[in-house]
Every structure is written in C-alpha cells, then in structure tokens.
C-alpha cells in the first residue's frame, strides 16, 4: 500500500534524525507539491536531513485533482493537508498526518491515517528504535510542540514505564 505524508510528521522525524524509520517501515513516501514546498522552506539541522530523504525515498508527485467529496471534507485545512489527503484518497494510500482536523477529515473519507506517534510505536515494535519516549522528547527539545499528555500516552501505548 502506498504511503502519503503531510509536512508535520516529516519535520518531526527530521528533528530527531529519525527519518530513516519511514524508509525502513514503508520503503517510499509520496508527497504532493504543497508539502514539498513546505519542506523546502525549512531551515536548521532538519533541513539537510529532509534534503537527503528527498534525494532517497521521499518522492514529490503531482497534485491530483481534488474530487468534490475531498473538497468538502478539507475546506478548512491548509494546502499541504488538503493535497496530502487528496493524494492519499486518489492512491488508496495510508496517510501520515499530525494535524487533528486533517486526520478527522481523512478518516471521514475512509482513509487509514497515523501520526508521528503511531509511526514511532510501529518503529519500536519493528526494533528500529529503542524508546518512543526518547524520540518524542528529542523532537520536543528541537522545537516541535508535543504535550506531556501525548508523550505519556505514547509511552504507555509503546509499553514503556511511566516517567
């Protein structure tokens, strides 16, 4: 099954230098033009990591036409989320997205969706990372906002002891 990503999970994983888990779990990640533009606008240490992943396993593809049902479900979302959902819908793909409204819209359209926390739990289950909590704490240290509650729930779901 193809995998499409929005900007957020890619930036979060780049901040913790964990983009490789996406390649290991899914092989290739498809992104629409709006997400590509958002990634190219990044600066800081994650910018080079994103560039390297774009040269390796993240593939920018043309934006598909947005069907009326996707248009209705995504009217309040930004261009990256709208295009990512439309691409996942067209491809019958698994969607990576952290935006709460975007995830809700994707689910209403029948798409399978996960955020960075779900990816990290899957990566731990596959033996690709040692600790979900450690990766999420690194992501947070690098400026990606995550609440304490999200961190604790993710660690508990990954079978890690409370902090």
List keywords for this structure.
single chain, 163 residues, mainly alpha, Rossmann fold, two-stranded parallel ribbon, 5 strands
Strand order of the largest sheet: 1-4-5
What is the gyration radius calculated from CA atoms?
15 Å
Proportion of β residues?
A: 5-15%
Give helix and strand order, one letter per element, not per position.
EHHEHHEHHEHEHHH
Number of domains: 2
Quick overview of this protein structure:
By secondary structure, this protein is mostly helical. The protein is 58% helix and 9% strand.
Architecture overview:
There is one protein chain. The chain contains 10 helices and 5 strands. A 3-stranded parallel sheet has the order 1-4-5. Strands 2-3 form a two-stranded parallel ribbon. The protein is globular and about 45 Å long. It folds into 2 domains: 112 residues, 3-Layer(aba) Sandwich (Rossmann fold); 41 residues, no CATH class. The mean pLDDT is 94.
Fold blueprint:
Elements: E1 3-5, H1 7-15, H2 20-26, E2 29-31, H3 33-40, H4 45-56, E3 58-60, H5 68-74, H6 79-91, E4 94-96, H7 100-108, E5 113-114, H8 116-125, H9 132-141, H10 148-157
Parallel strand pairs: 1-4, 2-3, 4-5
